[in-house]
Specification:
The chain is α+β, with helices and mostly antiparallel strands. It folds into 2 domains: about 15-215, Histidine kinase-like ATPase, C-terminal domain (Heat Shock Protein 90); about 230-370, Ribosomal Protein S5, domain 2 (2-Layer Sandwich). Helices cover about 30% and strands about 20% of the residues. It is built from 9 helices and 14 strands. It has helices at about 15-25, 30-40, 105-110, 170-175, 175-195, 220-230, 230-235, 295-305, 345-370, and strands spanning about 45-55, 60-65, 115-120, 125-130, 135, 150, 155-160, 200-205, 210-215, 235-240, 265-275, 285-290, 290, 315-325. Strands 1, 2, 3, 4, 5, 6, 7, 8 and 9 form a 9-stranded mixed β-sheet that branches. The chain has a 5-stranded mixed β-sheet with strand order 10-11-14-12-13, sandwiched between helices. A hairpin with a 5-residue loop joins β1 (about 45-55) and β2. α1 (about 15-25) crosses α3 (about 105-110), α5 (about 175-195) runs antiparallel to α6 and α8 (about 295-305) runs parallel beside α9. The chain binds adenosine-5'-diphosphate and magnesium ion. One of its GO terms (biological process) is mismatch repair. One of its GO terms (cellular component) is MutLalpha complex. Belongs to the DNA mismatch repair MutL/HexB family. GO terms for molecular function: ATP binding; ATP hydrolysis activity; ATP-dependent DNA damage sensor activity; mismatched DNA binding.
């Protein structure tokens, strides 16, 4: 058969390019929520309240009591690559906030109806703004417009409605509302465990009783008990280890603002279940530099540790917070790339595995001892 006539190459429309790019960043309501929660935490919030309709497809609303957004910043808030968190390339190597790419809100404005209510401490009223395709608009009309004064508390409320209304294929790739809602609850549950000082509340719109609710100023083990239950929390072992576990340098000598100048330094804190607890599947909460991430390599390594002490086909609960020098992990990974890799990964995973193994052995030993006496 003869090849077809070549078709002319055309430039894609800007709005179409943006919509496609946004779909790459925002996969589903739960991935939008993760970005929004990280923004609340970056803003120093101690309260994060989430309201959801139809698994987040109809409505995803996040209210925080953080620093708010300056009114003068609202016009460029949802533009691509606008951020308050990064200004020079060298900032990238010691970035301490979650965000820095300035893409989340922009993306949402391209695939959903986005509105923002925000108030800083020094504002006398709150301001409400609507966005479409990166720019301020009149609600439900295409005209650009200024933010409107409104009543509101200090902090920010982000309202995302009709997610993927303009990208039908993305919309049809979503599961049922209940499936999307359980993914939302999963993300919030994990962030709540990792941020026990922050109160998280999540409910369906119109419902008076929340499906998730944690107090502020709590502790990790309390939050785990509240969200994962007593059967897990009563079997937890607390483990702390670090690259300097065998070095002489004193922690007291270190200053928060003056981090040890060793790009290979790391610290790990974990809460893991002992041999008394057996689940059908591993529950693995992994935070690297306070970001929720995934690492199948780590998961496999830790499961191997438990292989020796748990009966066949039973698995542990593991919550691990790992902090490594931002220079050792590629912070510039694409937001959708959840699987992370970092410098000296094998050594670090091995050291943490050893620490878990030792802690489990000590406990097993004292248990045997308790039976004897
Ligand atoms: P990034 O977090 O990468 O900077 P985003 O698109 O998520 O990009 O947010 C853009 C900017 O909007 C942030 O840098 C921040 O200044 C502001 N912002 C977003 N959400 C909040 C919030 N909940 N509270 C205060 N400021 C916010
Ligand atoms: Mg962000």
């Amino acid at each position: 058969p003869t090849p077809p006539e070549p078709l002319p190459i055309r430039r894609l429309q800007e709005s179409l390019i943006n919509r496609i790019a946004a779909g790459e960043i925002i996969h589903r309501p739960a991935s939008a929520l993760k970005e929004l929660v990280e923004n609340c935490l970056d803003a120093g919030a101690t309260s994060v309240r989430v309201t959801v309709k139809d698994g987040g497809m109809k409505l995803l609303q996040i209210q925080d009591n953080g620093c708010g957004i300056r009114k003068s910043d609202l016009p460029i808030l949802a533009e691509r690559f606008t951020t308050s968190k990064l200004s020079t390339f060298s900032d990238l190597s010691h970035i301490r906030t979650y965000g820095f790419r300035g893409e989340a809100l922009a993306s949402m404005s391209h695939v959903a109806h986005l509105s923002v209510v925000t108030k800083t401490k020094s504002d006398s009223c709150a301001w409400k703004a609507y966005y479409s395709d990166g720019v301020l608009v009149e609600p439900k009309a295409g005209q650009t417009s200024d933010p409107k004064p409104t009543a509101g508390n200090d902090g920010t409320t982000i309202i995302v409605e009709d997610m993927f209304y303009n990208t039908p294929t993305r919309l049809s790739s979503l599961r049922s509302a209940s499936e999307e809602y359980s993914r939302i609850l999963d993300v919030l549950t994990k962030y709540a465990v990792h941020n026990p000082r922050v109160s998280f509340v999540c409910k369906k719109a119109g419902s008076s009783s929340p499906d998730l609710s944690t107090p502020s100023a709590s502790a990790v083990t309390h939050t785990i008990r509240l969200l994962y239950g007593h059967s897990i929390s009563k079997e937890l072992i607390h483990i702390e280890t670090s690259s300097s576990a065998h070095q002489t340098r004193k922690i007291d000598d270190m200053d928060e603002d003056d981090p040890i100048d060793d790009p290979e330094a790391w610290t790990a804190e974990a809460h893991v279940t002992n041999a008394n607890y057996q689940a059908k599947k591993t529950v693995f909460l992994l935070f690297i530099n306070h970001r929720l991430v995934e690492s199948s390599r780590m998961k496999r390594a830790f499961e191997a540790v438990y292989n020796g002490i748990l009966p066949k086909s039973s698995f542990p609960f593991i919550y691990l917070s790992l902090e490594i020098d931002p220079r050792s992990v590629d912070v510039n990974v694409h937001p959708t790339k959840r699987e992370v890799h970092f410098l000296n990964e094998d050594t670090i995973v091995e050291k943490i595995s050893d620490a878990i193994q030792q802690a489990l052995a000590v406990q097993n030993h004292s248990r045997a001892f308790a039976y004897q006496t």
